[in-house]
Amino acid sequence: MGHEADQRAALVFTLFDANGNGVLDPDDFKLMTERVLEVAADSPAADRQALADSLDDYWRVLSETLDTNGDGVISPEEFNGFVLNPKLFGATASQFADALAALGDPDGDGLIGRGRFLALMTAIGFRPANSEALFDAFGPDAEDRITVAVWAQGIRDYYSPEKSGIPGDRLLPQPA
Ligand SMILES: [Ca+2]
Ligand SMILES: [Ca+2]
User: In what residue span(s) does the EF-hand domain sit (predicted)?
Assistant: First the structure.
């Protein structure tokens, strides 16, 4: 695993710990679902449900796989970068990628505006400056929109340990 992928995995732990108690627990995934769905109140019900289902699945797969001491939560030690293991989590991450990107496009034209993108990324827990840089790296069109497909692929790349120099690396803390 490259250095960027290590950093991406560490950031995923911080983001998943939505309630900030230092471990991953079911409440984190409920909280993240609520925050994202609040931003996507105007998305079709099926798309909203798909996002809720994808985060439910994410927690189920994570806890079944990584809670090695069986205490019902995942510690940083238990987590330890395994989220980027494509064999364990590739399908789960891919489902989440499609569900999240779809919420960026409530009117179904296949395009996502910057404002909606930033609102969803902030709901997930990313910093606005990093999210802006990511949006720019995706190459928005003249009307400042990206496609649903580009964002979904960007999320998949983020979870692919063999990838480096990807747009998602804009989300990592930048050297001062
Ligand atoms: Ca937590
Ligand atoms: Ca545990």
Answer: 4-39, 54-89
Ligand nearest to the CA of 71: 2
Write down the pTM of the prediction: 0.85
Residue 29 CA, ligand 2 centroid: distance in Å: 16
Ligand 2 mean position, distance from CA 69 (Å):
5
CATH of the domain at 79: 1.10.238.10
CA distance 30 to 25: 9
Q: Which of 66, 49, 169, 30 is nearest to 103 (CA)?
A: 49
The number of distinct structural domains making up the chain is 1
Which three-class secondary structure state does DSSP give residue 146? Answer: strand
Q: How far is the CA of 138 from the centre of ligand 1 (A)?
A: 30
Per residue in 18-44, pLDDT (tens digit) is 999 999 999 999 999 999 999 999 999
